[in-house]
Amino acid sequence: MGLASFYNIELQTPRNLFLLTAQMTDYARVGQNLFWQRQGLYAAALILEAVYYSWIAALVAFAIVALTEVFDAYVFRRVLRMRKRNRAEAVFCLRLLYAGTILSSLNIAAFAITIALLQGHTTHFMPMFLLFAAAVFAAMNNHQIQSILVMRLSIYFAAFLFIPLYDIVVTGAPILSELWVQFFTSLFVMFFIADSSRVSRGLYMKTLQQMKELRAEHEKTKAAYVAKSEFLSTVSHELRTPLTCIKGSLDLIGHGAMGEVPEAMEKGVTMAQRNADRLSDLVNDLLDLQKMDAGRMEFHFDTVNVGTFLS
Question: Which of 109, 124, 117 is nearest to 178 (CA)?
């Protein structure tokens, strides 16, 4: 499957642009965080090749590794700086990730094949183990974007098959020879890596879906909170104006400003005043709560006598 096919699949697989950019960002962030770990693995492998096989081949491999790492570092920075809602930029960054994946995977595969060729027609523990380690590393850390994971593992699996099959074809080894055992073992290892990749990918997508659901719930909660705040603010202000008029009128009646209050009405007026005061206090409390939620509540601190305050 070509690069264009991988590209088209990746654009169709994510449900939206946000999911795609989230996957790319996670991939780039993991790649940056694992920089020194990769360098340590590369250094160990190159030293072994230089000491036991060929320092010239190790030097060439080192130069290629340096170039691919520089390119990957550029791509990771570009991905982390891209605008999340810009589809064209996301597409361009995805193509860069594909290119970096192909370059680094081919370099590792070529490195393992070179060592196998230098070893001759025998069992190849070191190159096969290097491929196994690289494939497991990819399964654990490159599962964010499915097409990139498939692309990288396909290159590693091709090298897995090439190394034993090349020896079998050249030497004409019988089916019961160690070379065939190595080939069948490679098939088993490939199945194990593919299954591990599937599990890692599934766990990552499940986590991503849970994060998406949490984000949606957060947005719903935020919208409900805003609606509640607006409702309290509206109700408080709408109640305060007529309540002020009612309370003022009751105070005037209670103080006899509008004429003497009949004795039969005094109790009712007093009760109405008391409940109007309670309702006014409630409205003021709602307004204070609104100010506190908005961060506009002003506090004035002063020293008081506790005994006097409580008495």
Answer: 124
Q: Where are the beta strands (DSSP E) in the chain?
A: none
Task: Tally the C-alpha atoms within 13 A of residue 192's C-alpha that lie toward its C-beta.
Answer: 10
Strands (DSSP E) along 105-245, which ranges? none
Long-range contact set of residues 284-288: C-beta below 8 Å, sequence gap at least 24? 286/232, 286/235, 286/236, 287/233, 287/236, 287/237, 287/240
CB atoms within 10 A of CB 241: 9
- Which CATH entry fits the domain spanning 228-297: 1.20.120, 1.10.287, 1.25.10, 3.30.1380? 1.10.287
Q: Taken in order 88, 91, 93, 96, is the CA torsion positive or negative?
A: negative
Q: What is the full per-residue pLDDT of the chain (311 aa) written as tens digits?
A: 444 444 444 444 445 677 788 889 999 999 999 999 888 989 999 999 899 998 998 999 999 999 999 999 999 999 998 876 678 888 889 999 999 999 999 999 999 999 999 998 888 999 999 999 999 999 888 888 888 999 999 999 999 999 999 999 999 989 988 899 999 999 999 999 999 888 888 888 888 788 878 888 888 888 887 777 777 777 666 777 777 777 777 777 777 666 676 766 777 777 877 887 787 778 777 777 777 776 666 777 777 777 776 76
Query: Who's near 80: CB < 8 A, 6+ residues apart?
Result: 25, 28, 29, 32
pTM value is 0.69
Q: How far apart are CA 273 and CA 263, in angstroms?
A: 16
